[in-house]
Amino acid sequence: MAATAANDARLNFRLPAEAKQAIEQAAALTGQSVSDFAVSTLLRTAQTLVQESDRTVLTKRDRKVFVALLDDVDAKPNAALSAAARRYKKRSR
Q: What is the pLDDT of residues 44-61, one digit of tens each?
């Protein structure tokens, strides 16, 4: 997180006392305040989840099929792809 970022948003939640104690202990072990520890841990997990959701993982078979389709010079776009391209071009103007 950038050092110049303003802390102008809040998250409030309840949790079991045992969870709070574990978080406090972990924060102390890292030398961070509970707030700094919670923010850094939540942010790191959130960023990982978002990155993973933006990525498509293909099997070897699917990758071969995908690349073969990309390399097929005789392939023609279907109606759905053509419509999507027209919509994209309209929005991009």
A: 999 999 999 998 889 999
For 37, the token pair is: 């520890």
How far is the C-alpha of 18 from the C-alpha of 51, rounded, in Å? Answer: 30
Residues of the domain holding 74: 17-92
Two tokens, residue 71? 């390399």
Q: Cα–Cα distance between 12 and 42 in angstroms, integer?
A: 13
Residue 58 lies in a domain: yes
CA distances from residue 25 to 7, 19, 41, 56, 63 in whole angstroms, order as listed: 24, 10, 14, 37, 45
d(C-alpha 1, C-alpha 4), whole Å: 9
Rounded to two decimals, what is the model's pTM?
0.58
